[in-house]
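wait is this the right file?? whatever heres the structure
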């Protein structure tokens, strides 16, 4: 048993020394992914698409609110007729029934407005995540190509998180490790070729 433990410790030491020796020869760089993402042409077009979809959702919402306002007017008018003693009892009763029906429609419409707003918010959020993921994958390919040409083994993201709750991936790095400007130049060159 003791020989087994000693042998395991010896194997672990050999493996760890190999890992540390390999890490010593690694080239590490940092890149501000948020900055290169904002500079990427597809990001701008994706944002425009999302803004258009948001405008469409807002127009849909405004249309639904306008319909609700019309129904509220009808409800108010029927309610006033139901309580107006100038009308006969039968007319007031008919208007009371109409007002109750309109009130039920109003409640249903308000529920539809909330559900539609929540659904559109969810859809837009999902589209934004998909677009961002697609762009990040393309940017990773750009960074990967640069790293393969320049023998860089590891790249860390130096962007400051937008939420303010998560710590930065890179707390400190020397300026010469930052390849953000080089990646921005590659993106610019690629965009110029497309035009």
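ok assuming it is, sequence goes like this
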């Amino acid at each position: 048993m003791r020989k087994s433990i000693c042998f395991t410790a010896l194997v672990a030491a050999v493996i760890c020394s190999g890992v540390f020796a390999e890490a010593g020869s690694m080239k590490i760089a940092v890149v501000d992914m948020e900055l290169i993402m904002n500079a990427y042409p597809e990001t701008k077009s994706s944002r425009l698409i999302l803004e258009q979809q948001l405008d469409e959702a807002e127009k849909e919402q405004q249309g639904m609110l306008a319909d609700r306002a019309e129904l509220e007017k009808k409800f108010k008018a029927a309610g006033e007729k139901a309580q107006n003693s100038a009308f006969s009892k039968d007319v007031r009763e008919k208007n009371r029934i109409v007002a109750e029906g309109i009130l039920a429609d109003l409640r249903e419409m308000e529920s539809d407005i909330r559900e539609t707003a929540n659904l559109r918010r969810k859809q837009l959020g999902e589209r934004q995540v998909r677009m961002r993921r697609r762009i990040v994958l393309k940017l990773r390919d750009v960074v990967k190509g640069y790293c393969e040409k320049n023998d860089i083994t590891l790249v860390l993201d130096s962007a400051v998180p937008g939420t303010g709750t998560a710590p930065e991936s890179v707390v400190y790095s020397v300026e010469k490790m930052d390849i953000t400007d080089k990646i921005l130049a590659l993106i610019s060159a690629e965009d110029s070729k497309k035009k």
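The domain at 23-194 is CATH 3.30.910.20 (Protein Binding, DinI Protein; Chain A). so i think its the right one actually
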